[in-house]
Amino acid sequence: MNMQKISLFITSALAIASASAVAADSPPPTSAEPKAQCSVDALQKIAPQGTNILSADQLQMPTPFCKIVGTAKATKPDSTINFTLSLPTNEWNGRYYFMGLGGAAGFMPPANPKLLGAGFAVAVTDTGHQGTILDWSFAKDNPTAMLDHAHRAGHVTAVATQALTRAFYGAQKMYRYMLGCSGGGRMTEQAIERYPDDFDGAVVGAPGLGWDPSWFTWTTQQIFRTPNAWVAPAKLALIERTVIKQCASPNGLVADPNSCGFDPASLLCKGGDGPNCLTKDEVDTVKAIALGPPAVYPGRPRNGFALTNPTGWTQFFMGATRPVKGQANPWAPSPPTAGYIIANSFMRDMFIRDPKLDVIDGFSFDNPADVKRLAEGYDWADLSPRHPEKLSAFKAKGGKVIYWHGIADPGIPVSEIITHYNDLQQSVPGSSDFARLFLAPGTYHCGGGMGPQDVPDRALEKLIAWRERDIAPDTIVGTGPSVPEGLPEGMPGRPAPDAMISPTRTVLMCAYPKTAKFNGRPGDFGFDAGNYSCVDPK
């Protein structure tokens, strides 16, 4: 993995997911102009107790707004949490947007300019510490920092910045939304499970949640299971081509997380290794990653990665070159994969809390003592929301939540969100009245891949319409990248050679468990969402 790809991953895993569009046809609930000056002294006078204003700057670009940097106080145990609040000074649309951060957070990115331009108040916190996106060392032997990062920092800064927003505009009512992806999705789910009064609506994307976030350790170990267990990018591309040919819709996207039952063993080499087959070691690796790690907690399902688009595995955890065991960076001189970095920091800093732990050989899912220690670490960190039944309180308050996940996600398995949503349906009666799930075919971790790239934007539009006008979302139409080359010839619905080709694809996503089915006539454009309809699963 080169530095550009690491940068791409960090950008998506960061999952600021600052939706750049808003529901243009949804009238704002109210609008107001500032009632206070953009100065430290003026803002401190209207700030809630325990909030300290550090700076206030009136900025003009991309639109006039007041940028406020401050801290909020948490108690029992005490800590001080940083926040940034950006308040439009021309006109506020009556909406507040809290930005969920992915990974380890540790910094405060600027507010999305399109949200500011649309009149949103925008808030963000570093979750109680300063650091880098893939480094959880702040949590080691520091339960207060872990508590803040897990959920408390988001709560106290949301309360403080919402109070500031109301006071700044002299408004009592506003709609409050939170959106995040990856760790930001985890953060958003924690907020609505634990603090149902904090938000009116939430978009939870590709969240790190559930009982057992040990995919990073598991996938790392599979690569080094035998000297030939690593799977080269060309072999992963072979799997992807095979799955697309067997299972894709006319748009080239695989909407079935189970890949239509594809078995990697069907590509097993009959003789020696070759470019068009998989060795037994490669088959075993792919199967293990698709199966997922053994459940640490009894009774929980194993959740592995979908086989729909495994070329994304190269970037996230497999690496573009064969790794060598026994060195600090097995992929040297190339940078280590993001998954390897996360596995080390998760285990060494949060869960096992042993700085010398070797994630390849120093932990075994077959060792009961290791598994017990890992479960205790999960309980100590309390990082992942795992109680969807608690959302009954959020529902009772009128809250709405839209979940979404890329089916081809190589960072967090799509099976995790499906398990979570099924648990929610079983534990909260009438869950579809306030919660919907949408799966994005071909989309990687929070973005990337062949699938739709604007799901957070479209989901926020749908959420606003749902919460403010009671229009429940049955579909989301996303926009994908340009039509990819290399799709199998003869695919049903593939446009004729002389057909007009759209520079982008529109993709229909249906409220789970429904799926999009091509219903066009022969020769109809396969990359137009209008040629699909939602159908019940078979």
Automatic annotation (TrEMBL):
Keywords (A to Z) from UniProt: Calcium, Disulfide bond, Hydrolase, Metal-binding, Serine esterase, Signal
Entries under Gene3D superfamilies matching the protein: alpha/beta hydrolase
SUPFAM superfamilies for the chain: alpha/beta-Hydrolases
Gene Ontology molecular functions: carboxylic ester hydrolase activity; metal ion binding
Pfam families xref list: Tannase
Residues in the signal sequence: 1-23
Membership in a protein family: Belongs to the tannase family.
Protein name as it appears in the record: Feruloyl esterase
Organism from which the protein derives: Sphingobium baderi
